[in-house]
Description:
Helices cover about 35% and strands about 15% of the residues. It has about 350 residues and is of the alpha/beta class. It has a 9-stranded mixed β-sheet. The protein binds S-adenosylmethionine and iron/sulfur cluster (SF4). The site of S-adenosylmethionine has 17 residues, from β3 and β5.
Amino acid sequence: MPEDNGAGSAEQAVARQPDHRSKATLLWALRSPCPRGCLYCYFGTVEKHRARPVTGIGQLSHLSCDDLSPGQVLAFARTLPGSRIRRVVLAGGEPLAWPPILQLIRVLKDGALQVIVCTEGTALNRPEMTQTLIELGVDAVSVSLDSVDPTYNDQLRPPRNGKDGWERVVSGIEALITARGDHEYPKIGIYSVITNQNLADLEAMPKLAEQLGCDYFIPQPLALTEDHDLHDMSLATDHIPELRDRFAALGASPPSLHIPRGRYPEQFEASISHPLATVTGCFGGRTLFFAQPDGRLWDCPSTYRIEATTPERRRTIADADARTLFQPGDCGDCALFSRDCVNMWPLMDFSQIIGDPA
Ligand SMILES: C[S@@+](CC[C@H](N)C(=O)[O-])C[C@H]1O[C@@H](n2cnc3c(N)ncnc32)[C@H](O)[C@@H]1O
Ligand code: SF4
């Protein structure tokens, strides 16, 4: 087993949260359906799942029929204020394509929780959507866009309607930035998945983000199992010299653009060099939880961690009360590090962008 590669940063992340045993973040994959069909998506592709439906515990699918009802989601959300959860990251599927999304955000913001929305961006072209996100006081909106090259982006992140490609995502970002005007929030950022085909976007995308007026840029390594059709696009050790150069250039981004600094480039690299390693003192399971559209609740989003969860540790948010559900966990040292984990670190870095939760 390779050496510990995450301890410093995990401890620093925890140290930044003085009250870390009581404050926690919920990464909430809210809904399964999505108007886009990204080829690498954690939810798989509709075409493959039509041919072979997925059944495994914790496996995600855009075709899932088990998503919690709006009533169940809202009932659980009403119990979050007063619980350990102080920050909710709404992801998916596509959260902004779910009709009651603004109702849910209102419940969370009325409960004084920090709310970060992760979106594929198309819905931001709807003025009533951007206006309401601003009025509700959403803290941050992260838009996924992988490249400055529309063709590359749209090949990997194709819209299912054939229309809402790269231009519509960029116009959505512009619409939100314009509508925000002089408001401080939401902070607006771009998330890019980095493969061996778009390493240059580690430099080009922060420049685009800055030109658009974004507040942050976060690169994330493609995380796919070896049997995935696109696994050949994953970064490998021979990309490390270029990766280092590109991260050095990224580090020279203007201070007005927040990028993951500190040990993030090392973790990114470590996930490529050591696909399996030990992390000491990981915050997953202590200060980060992961809920799936069907309500299943996990200690963290790592695939390996989910697979290793014992039956007695399997829980659900369905009909549960968050005030008793999120007890401080004993999940700290972990031998199940994976590329998924690298994508957790910038989530915990959000205090630098939106401040600490109340
Ligand atoms: C699952 S999406 C949900 C929110 C929204 N639909 C979106 O695309 O932003 C959350 C983030 O995970 C990223 N993602 C999905 N599959 C991935 C993979 N296999 N490896 C790395 N990142 C991935 C997406 O690009 C996006 O930034
Ligand atoms: S937009 Fe997000 S949820 Fe939808 S397919 Fe792409 S990565 Fe997956």
